[in-house]
Write a structure and sequence with these properties.
536 residues; alpha+beta; 4-stranded mixed sheet; 20 helices; 8 strands; disordered N terminus; Cytochrome_P450_fung; transmembrane; iron; Cyt_P450; Cytochrome P450
């Protein structure tokens, strides 16, 4: 996979040209590798110089480099949505050295391809760099095949089945601990991140963060930061895979030092919490979790074939590494929405007060507070945490609506455009309006309440989405019950303005950094919060 496509698979950032300095470690890169790289550009450019044929419309592009300079760096999902209007087509294409991008801006089209033709649209872009770092073993980056199916069955069984009392008790406890953390901090983003880690770690491994410097949360953050950094830069080894055989001291092979560090970090992040659970189970002092139940199902978990343990370790690893970031993104987006739309906050609190009568919410209240449920749907729709999803790769030539997609095309579902489709979600898609998910009587409208696009499509849809939704719901319900979210300012201390809000342009898109106050609501006391936690 070309390095600029690697960039797109993580933070949606792209190197401007294949021979840019971001791809080379030092100026001492040998002339032979420059020649080889140039050869790659020229050869792929020859392909790009051919006519578009029956590809979907898109920018015209240039000789040799095709549409490389057209790929948007900032909020590409918005740019692709504008292009769909410009070219009067919900299917677009871009041709860049080594790859064809097919961009899909309509939910029905994505369903036709990713769901109805899942057998040929379920692969992932492959990267020599990711292979060297051990990232390709994680289910989200694996190609569709027997190993992926095995991982998927395991994940689906253990995480979709987790919508039960064991999972919910962990999520409920994490939500209540968040209320206590917010009593003593002005850095709400730090506490939201810690709480997301709390929920994921407790459900997956039965572990709870020990504090703001918790080693498990820090390890996951460091790993995800490194992966984003690697994806952002792009490396020559993805253009010329044979370079992976070079020693790290060889001119131009300095990337191997970062790869080695990344491989060690990924392996540590996947192994450490799992091995902790094994050690706890050996002593009999452990909490129920997905990991503990899996290990308990084995005849002898201390003497089990490595492959079985590795498979489960890797399945749990992606939940641990990826689940926290996407959850934090949703909670930060919720906080921003409450500051920008205080009337929404007030209506939700009125609903909660009428149902709860002075207590804190629990999962028995699901279905009784539809406006809170609508807020969670709107958080997912308004600014989805992965606006372009994770890319799919076509494993054979295909045609659709008169267009021809070549084998190997990288297919991009514009999740943001799909969730801003006025035909599906009503007018004013850029505004935060939970009412769009409600019937006139205030109940949830099942025809509107489908925001699964935020979690992917077809056979690659996130199998942990049920747990993810439930945790955000219970966390939001607790925050609105206990606190007024007020006094919002930007990073410079200026009042927030809706028109100036900009989310990040990475694969997991975050709300901008803001300052605000979580103020205890009248009638809510620190003692009540502590009592609710102690009652768990």
């Amino acid at each position: 996979m070309p390095p600029y496509i690697l960039s797109l698979t993580l933070p949606i950032d792209i190197g401007i040209v294949l021979l840019s300095s971001t791809m080379f470690d030092t100026a001492v890169l040998g002339s032979w590798s420059v020649i080889l790289s140039a050869g790659v550009v020229v050869l792929t450019g020859l392909v790009l110089s051919q006519r578009r044929g029956n590809l979907p419309p898109g920018p015209r592009g240039l000789p040799i480099i095709g549409n490389l300079l057209d790929v948007p760096l900032k909020h590409p999902w918005r740019v692709y949505a504008r292009w769909a209007q410009k070219y009067q087509s919900d299917i677009l294409s871009l041709r860049i050295p080594g790859a064809t991008l097919i961009i899909l801006n309509k939910g029905s089209i994505v369903n036709d391809l990713f769901s109805k033709r899942a057998l040929i649209y379920s692969d992932r872009p492959q990267s020599t760099l990711f292979e060297m770092m051990g990232v390709s073993r994680l289910i989200v980056f694996q190609n569709y095949g027997e190993r992926w199916k095995s991982y998927r069955r395991t994940f689906k069984h253990d995480f979709e089945a987790e919508t039960n009392s064991a999972s919910r008790s962990h999520e409920l406890a994490a939500s209540r601990r968040l209320l206590r953390r917010l009593l003593r901090t002005k850095n709400h983003e730090k506490e939201l991140r810690l709480t997301a880690g709390d929920a994921i770690l407790s459900v997956t491994y039965g572990l709870s963060p020990s504090g703001e410097d918790d080693s498990y949360v820090a390890l996951a953050d460091e790993t995800m930061t490194l992966l984003a950094d690697v994806g952002r830069g792009g490396f020559i080894v993805d253009a010329i895979p044979i370079l992976k055989l070079l020693p790290s001291w060889f001119p131009g092979a300095g990337f191997k030092d970062k790869v080695a560090r990344g491989a060690k970090l990924v392996d540590t992040a996947i192994r450490t919490p799992f091995e902790t659970v094994k050690a706890e189970m050996a002593t009999g002092n452990f909490k129920s979790s997905v990991a503990s139940r899996y290990l308990a199902s084995l005849d002898d978990f201390t003497n089990t074939p490595d492959k079985l343990v590795d498979d489960m370790r890797n399945v749990l690893g992606i939940a641990y590494l990826g689940g926290a970031d996407t959850t934090v993104a949703q909670l930060c987006s919720f906080t921003l929405a409450m500051l920008l739309y205080p009337e929404v906050q007030k209506r939700a609190q009125k609903e909660l007060d009428a149902v709860l009568h002075g207590r804190f919410p629990d999962f028995g209240d699901y279905g009784k507070i539809p406006y809170v449920e609508a807020i969670v749907h709107e958080v997912l729709r308004w600014n989805p945490m992965t606006p372009l999803g994770v890319f799919h790769v076509l494993n054979q030539d295909d045609s659709y609506e008169g267009y021809v997609f070549p084998k190997g095309s990288i297919c991009v579902a514009n999740v943001w455009a799909i969730l801003h489709d006025e035909e599906l979600y009503g007018p004013k898609p850029d505004e935060f309006i939970p009412e769009r998910f409600l019937n006139k009587d205030g109940s949830i409208n099942p025809k509107r309440a489908d925001t699964d696009a935020a979690f992917g499509f077809g056979r690659r849809i996130c199998p942990g989405r049920v747990i993810a939704r439930e945790f955000v719901w219970i966390a939001v319900a607790h925050l609105l019950t206990a606190y007024d979210i007020v006094d919002g300012t930007d990073k410079d201390g200026k009042p927030l303005e809706r028109s100036k809000i900009e989310y990040t342009s990475e694969m997991i898109s975050f709300a901008p950094h803001i300052n605000c106050t979580f103020r205890l609501r009248p009638g809510v006391t620190e003692g009540m919060i502590n009592d609710a936690i102690d009652a768990m």
